[in-house]
Amino acid sequence: MLSESEFASRLHTNYVPSDGEISQIKQLLVKPQMELLALEKEIQRFQGLLNNLFLKRDALQGMLKAHEALISFPRRLPQDILQEIFLHCLPTNRNAVMSCKEAPLLLGRVCSNWRTIVYATPQLWSSIHICMFSESSDIPLDLDIYDRTYHTLSKHLALSRYQAVRDWLNRTGSCPLSISYYAVPIELRWDDIGHEMGPDHIIKILSLFSHQWRDMHFSMPPENCREVLECLSANNAPILRSLSVTEINHLTSKTLLDMSTTPIITPDIQSLSLFPIPSMAMFKYLSETCWSRLTRLSLNCDVPGITTSLKLSITLSVLRHCPEITHFWLVIPRLDGPDDYRILKGPSVTLTHLRSMIISTVNPVQKLLDCLILPSLSSLAIDLIQNNELTFSIHPFVSRIGEQITSLTISCSNEGSRGDLRRCISYMPLVKKFHIVRRDWFIIPLYQFDEDHTEDVNYLLYDETLEMLTPSKDAPTDSIWPNLETLECDVDAVVSMERVLDFLEARNGNADVGIAQIKRIKLTLHILVPRMEANDARACESRIEKLRKDGVKVDISWAKNLEIHVLSAWCGIESTGHQEW
């Protein structure tokens, strides 16, 4: 045994054997080396046997699983049950995207049986988000390809997408359709004799299915809207329930269309959004029609050639004809002409069912707001440009309805936002949900593609704000907004993770004195907020985990860039589902 050799005490040392000892060690190693060789051969033999056993086992397992699959429960599900399951795979907060990464296309890639069922279920294809681009579009910066290659690629993609849209809609049968169409804004093109080019082939396809239109969202350059608006009459779109038409191109000053020469929107519509209102004729039509079923109305009153006071007067007339309205969104982005508000005189308008209002304006709107009686209003979003007259003018309205408000959304985009927040806190003590947004939240998607747009500075959410909302240890009952349950911030916040967690733990540790627990917090930390060291990060993660166990939905992350290029099927999806308001 080598372990009993006379050299055992010399092992693992720096001892140098003599020539005689070297010969002795070599003789000592002969027999062990032969034993090692025999062991390796035996191991190889057993390894071969083991490999054969593994192969037999895998083959047997494969056969067993294949036979078990024949009698599996999902395989025996009736087609109507599978169809119901497939319907629950569709997205619920937006339309389905033409992507093999999600239903319904993903379901059709599982097996031939599923594909047959998917293609035979019209409801699976009744919603679609379509993004269309032009081969003349600029090359996205994230695509490192040559100009000719890009335009060839985009042309092939466009042709295939036309056919894909046609095939998709042909599978819908007679189902009501929910469609969001986003046309990437581009420079206008002209042919050799000066005529404007670029017919919208997607609109031509969609118009063939106008009798099935139910919920329609169009975001496109104004010159492509004519065919859409011509399909809106009750004869062409008899089941139309929701319509959103948004201009997204700033490269032309054209208005959408002269609505006096086109069919009129059915008065039975329930949700209507025009960004901007296409013409004065359309504006007057809105004010003269009884919208007996309309519950959601979004108006950007950027109609050229009329004064602000007239805009407000017509807006008031529109509201008089909307007895069932529950959500109203008003944008007046610029000041036009002298402001003679005497035209607003008349009986007040009582909107019994109005629960949510969004106001974005650079104009004093006190006279308009004074004419509104809103007994059910509980959700308010306000965007006040830094304007002392405007800020002062809205105070009476905010103070009048303040104690009704349980959900508040406010812009953080100017230095006066902190003062606005303090006033809102004093007027609105019962807020349960607080949402901080950038200014273009109020006017999206009008300006979201402005080349000069820069990331908004967050003047509102900082450490001092959280400290103000944190109950003091000495007098927790004097807490600001004791009913606060939800805090969301869409603009990168320069606050520390520790400050956020201190706020959550303090709010959720005072339930015994009437302080509501925070149920949801969602914010993104600015990229300038330093990352935590490993030990601090683990400690914060432990605190977050405890909050989650207590039922708090915590969504806190660091900012990162996630851009979608124009060739993607997902492009424009964020513009189709604005905030829940």
Automatic annotation (TrEMBL):
User: By what name is this protein known?
Assistant: Uncharacterized protein
Q: Which organism is it from?
A: Crucibulum laeve
Phylogenetic lineage: Eukaryota, Fungi, Dikarya, Basidiomycota, Agaricomycotina
